Amino acid sequence: MKRLINVFLILTIYNIEEKGLKDLKLIVMAYRKEHVEFLNKYLNEDDIIAVYAGHAHLLRYVDKPQKMLVAPSIERIMNSLEKLKDVKIDYITYNPEIYPTHNTPLEELENQTKTVKKIRKICDSIGAKLSYTPDKNLLQTEAPNIAPLVDMFGIQLQRYQRKKDFYLSSKNLINIIRKSNPYIPITIQLSMSPPVWKGEKLMRDKKGNKILRPISVDSVIEQTEFLKNSISGVAFLYKANSYQNMKELVIKLRKKFTN
Predict the structure, then answer these.
(1) Which entry of 170, 196, 226, 248 is 20 to 30 Å from 162 by CA?
(2) Please, which residues bridge with residue 130 across strands?
(3) How many domains, the chain?
């Protein structure tokens, strides 16, 4: 069975005093060359195309937008940079996960502060900014130490989207970060197909995978609008076959926030 690839779209929305949300900065993660080609035409020089380490070569095709490399470990970061010596990287996003399949080494998980400081030095050596997007467990334990060390902080909120306390959970996690770094840009991660809950239990299939069901583009926009004044941006998670939905969402948000 063909493996589905997750695609992220990060819309970083800067609230410039009385101008509101008129300055919309897009950060879109691409997994195929066709995505990059589309984004090269659609995005401007202040926007960002992000690529996971396994697809780092795609950054070579980025023209006008800025470039972001996303990786779960120092090793994956260094291996990618070695292959991209002649490519200017603008952002590195460290995306550690506790789950073994995500390839974050145990020694990094056990000392996130030390690891982030090492990545900070890597970023400084190449003139890149550092973003940190951990899983929810790491966020709750590591945010006070990590937030002062990075340029951007991401929160994975897709698991809460169908829960009644979605907004309360979101605000609580945002506040954890704000207490440590009041001015840091924060992005939240949402999904067009968030997990399904039955009471307080996540629903899973026979293989143990979370059951995902789609919600409308307008529903995700509504959640974004509710939180827009508490965050600097929002990341949207897709399946690789939802490319058209990604384009629809970009167009709707640009029209809503730039008119």
Answers:
(1) 248
(2) 92
(3) 1
Per residue in 157-211, pLDDT (tens digit) is 988 999 988 999 999 999 999 998 998 999 888 888 888 988 888 898 888 888 8
Output the CA angle 72-73-77, nearest 5 degrees: 100
The CATH number of whichever domain residue 196 belongs to comes to: 3.20.20
Predicted confidence (pLDDT) per residue in 208-259, tens digit: 888 888 888 899 888 888 888 888 877 777 776 677 888 888 778 766 665 4
219 residue type, one letter: S
Q: CB–CB of 9/29 below 8 Å?
A: yes
DSSP state letter for 19: G
Contact 181, 142 (CB under 8 A): no
DSSP 56: G
Q: Do strands 91-94 and 129-132 pair parallel, antiparallel, or not at all (unpaired)?
A: parallel
The residue segments making up the domain with residue 197 are 6-258
For residue 1, is it within any domain? Answer: no
Tell whether 92 is covered by a domain. Answer: yes
Cβ atoms 47, 26 nearer than 8 A: yes
State the Cα torsion 130-135-138-139 to the nearest 10°: 70
How many residues make up the chain in this entry?
A: 259
Amino acid identity, residue 201?
K
Chain mean position to CA 40: 19
Question: Residue 25 falls within a domain, yes or no?
Answer: yes
Show the beta-strand stretches assigned E in 19-173. Answer: 23-29, 48-52, 66-71, 91-94, 129-132, 152-156
pTM: 0.86
Domain annotation covers residue 127: yes
